[in-house]
Specification:
Elements (H helix, E strand, L loop, with lengths): L1 E6 L5 H14 L4 E6 L10 H9 L4 E5 H6 L11 E4 L2 H10 L3 E3 L2
Parallel strand pairs: 1-2, 1-5, 2-3, 3-4
């Protein structure tokens, strides 16, 4: 099972991470990507986001470079383990082409 969760608003971070937590309780082998773009990019600066990322090393975390530019964020401001992608929309398209189910909390 492959799933991409899409967060484009900061207030959706908690719901997305709750969904990931619940999915992993049932399917610990799920391959999960959490893509963050839009104003959601600011989520990566929250303490709870940093804690979640550290607790779930098997989840891939992606950050949209365009959103980072719009919110004046630098890569070194992201938690360790977050991968920067050129464009969140393109990342979503490519992941879905690879068979990832799309979830937007």
């Amino acid at each position: 099972m492959k799933v991409v969760f899409h967060v484009d608003e900061i207030n959706k971070w908690q719901e997305a991470t709750n969904n990931i937590y619940n999915l992993l309780k049932l399917r610990s082998d799920a391959k999960i990507v959490l893509l963050v773009n839009g104003s959601g990019i600011q989520s990566y600066q929250l303490k709870r986001a940093q804690t979640f990322i550290a607790e779930y090393p098997n989840v891939s975390f992606h950050a949209c470079q365009n959103a980072m530019n719009a919110f004046h964020m630098l890569q070194d401001e992201l938690p360790l383990g977050v991968e920067v992608v050129a464009a969140g929309v393109l990342d979503l398209i490519e992941l879905q082409e690879q068979g990832y189910a799309y979830i937007k909390p």
